[in-house]
User: Fold these one by one.
Assistant:
Number 1:
Amino acid sequence: GAVVSQHPSRVICKSGTSVKIECRSLDFQATTMFWYRQFPKQSLMLMATSNEGSKATYEQGVEKDKFLINHASLTLSTLTVTSAHPEDSSFYICSARRYVGRGNNEQFFGPGTRLTVL
Amino acid sequence: EDQVTQSPEALRLQEGESSSLNCSYTVSGLRGLFWYRQDPGKGPEFLFTLYSAGEEKEKERLKATLTKKESFLHITAPKPEDSATYLCAVQARSNYQLIWGAGTKLIIKP
């Protein structure tokens, strides 16, 4: 199977600081990765699509200057939450897309990062 | 508008009691339908991708089927460790974004 890792799994920070979350595809190359946010008992909310070597595409309502995404290699995407505030506290999950031929693809998720902003 | 509806919202079964979860969808050209399992506090775990009507896939006690309007996730003789939220998502041919259902919370009682 395909493995996606995320680091850190938990982070607690003070309001106003920045936090970086890493997402790595461990056994396949991913030209496209995705960042999601999930609130308790709710489904996944797509924040942005991260493309290797180009700018990320953000969903409507997601502040690109607050949630900085960098996809510098085929196995690593990072999400930086800048000047974090308590309302940014959430569960952040990344995923990586793997092509399986004939235009088909599968998406594998990381274990998630629990961010708590005090 | 592309849409995914999962039912029921929650399902409680006794251990060994087989059942099915439903995922109904409307999409302008299906590229693929995905099933995931999510445990509390963890990211979704990939289960299956189905690409065309009539396709079936199996993994241990799980079997996923696909028609032109819906997919079923059949659970045979479930065990307590099968308890989780099961998520369904579809992908349209027009783009690669996943459109998610709200999930079905499955609870298997010993």
Note: The first strand of chain B starts at residue 3 and ends at 7.
Number 2:
Amino acid sequence: DIQMTQSPSTLSASIGDRVTITCRANQSISTWLAWYQQKPGKAPNLLISKASSLESGVPSRFSGSGSGTDFTLTISSLQPDDVATYYCQQYYIYSWGFGQGTKLEIK
Amino acid sequence: QVQLHESGPGLVKPSETLSLTCTVSGGSISGYYWSWIRQPPGKGLEWVGYVYYVGSANYNASLRSRATIAVDMSKNQFSLTLTSVTAADTAVYYCARERSHGSGRIYDYWGQGTLVSVAS
């Protein structure tokens, strides 16, 4: 199985900050990577597919990049509504696996 | 708009069987893969298994001997049965739709989740 590792595990930032979350695969997955946002007490919500394609309705302050083994999720200007745990998921080789999550807090 | 809703008991005794149902509305179960994903309290997401609308299923290797996922197209539902549960099976259980993308699949619609506690 492909292992996905996210860093950091927890991130504290101020409103308006640029925030970057990293996801690393232990082998190349091309750009077959998705990002999900899970707000407290809620189900995960698909934000980005194919490493950089924003889903409909997702604010433009979110962006994704990367290919191969290294990927990033960036929030250009952190908003209070962005408090959540973020997960990456590879879908290059079955079985699709999630990273362990990055919890984003407001400083 | 596709909606998924999980239902089932919130408390199951150790060694007994956990049974959950996911009802799909606003769209057909036909043509898609449907998954169960669980999340132990305070932890990350763990894929349990999936079923294709025609009935073929696959499971997380760690649960394969205990899990069964089935589909009922007439009711637009799919279900999860997990036998011989222990406290380690305590989790929020989500049902989700898998959307094909390239040769892989991503989860584009999720239920709100249901907490199942295993305790005597």
Note: Residues 98 and 105 of chain B are 6 Å apart (CA to CA).
Number 3:
Amino acid sequence: SQTIHQWPATLVQPVGSPLSLECTVEGTSNPNLYWYRQAAGRGLQLLFYSVGIGQISSEVPQNLSASRPQDRQFILSSKKLLLSDSGFYLCAWSAAYNEQFFGPGTRLTVL
Amino acid sequence: AQTVTQSQPEMSVQEAETVTLSCTYDTSENNYYLFWYKQPPSRQMILVIRQEAYKQQNATENRFSVNFQKAAKSFSLKISDSQLGDTAMYFCAGYYGGSQGNLIFGKGTKLSVKP
């Protein structure tokens, strides 16, 4: 069966510090991968998606970036965090171009 | 434009009763998929139910069922015999095609099940 992991689960970072969130998927090959951000009490905002290694599409211009160094690994990064980057970050995968399966999420607080 | 709209920000229901969450969507595609996701307080998104647009029969998963009205572009979720564990945010989402597999999400409905 397929599983998706995210780490860390929670993170508190100062403004201006770098960020690296990791997502890995097990039990499937060549998945589509997605990064979402969810502000408190609000819906999901798609940040990045990837249909293959090294292929990244950005939905929202911002100080975040994403990379896919391996087939089942998706990384969300920032060189300098802003207060507005605080939120709940969800990684998801899909194989059939429709339903997506989500990881447990990372709660990021930027102080 | 391809959209998903949830017009009920919050709802409540008594335990063991039935509740219906509303969702409308818009697309010009003929083949698409619709989903309901549940996000409990743990915040992990859980797929509840999916509906293929080409299927006339409404999808059902145990206590969860949908009322899919294709002409009206409506996709409501009915929860029967509500349980305390059903307390969560519920998101309606649509996939309207494209190789990237992007879903379009509604803004969610916060459901509280009261004892």
Note: The first strand of chain B starts at residue 3 and ends at 5.
Number 4:
Amino acid sequence: NAGVTQTPKFRVLKTGQSMTLLCAQDMNHEYMYWYRQDPGMGLRLIHYSVGEGTTAKGEVPDGYNVSRLKKQNFLLGLESAAPSQTSVYFCASSYPRLSPTYEQYFGPGTRLTVT
Amino acid sequence: DQQVKQNSPSLSVQEGRISILNCDYTNSMFDYFLWYKKYPAEGPTFLISISSIKDKNEDGRFTVFLNKSAKHLSLHIVPSQPGDSAVYFCAASAGGGADGLTFGKGTHLIIQP
């Protein structure tokens, strides 16, 4: 099992450009999440999905869109990148009904720089 | 307003001694608390968790204590080993875990030889 994978690992964008971050999991998890981590900060939830075809906003959703067309994939889109979106982005997945600990499994992260 | 607080940005402990990492929370709706460990350039990895109906959970060298009345939890690592050097995040969940986790800012634990 590869677990949670993220593509790409690194990316540099210019202000106003768009891009999509891809998250894939092979654990058949129902729930998937996108977080961002900024220096000196904890992880903050951007958007999440509790099943295929469903998405919901987290704590910091502005400037991002998401889609969950397939159970194993969760895409995070930036329509018009801004320097404030420079961050490390983490995807996570979980299956609370099978996990008594509410554990989420994280990907390795995507480091995004917007100039 | 931060709902999960880790007030020590860093902590230095000698190898073999006990490491104690602290976490405070403000939201009474949190029903599960988790600790994650993170190495540089990697994603967080789950360490240990505790339900709000318990006051202690132990897993090998790691023990988490929950004081619900004080809205405080702590992670004890005994004995501390060099591989424990990492950033430790306290996280909390409400509503059965569906809505994501709320994280503290993390504590950088440094184990001195």
Note: The interface with chain B takes residues 4, 31, 33, 35, 40-45, 48, 50, 56, 58-59, 90, 92, 94, 96, 99, 101-109 of chain A (CB under 8 Å).
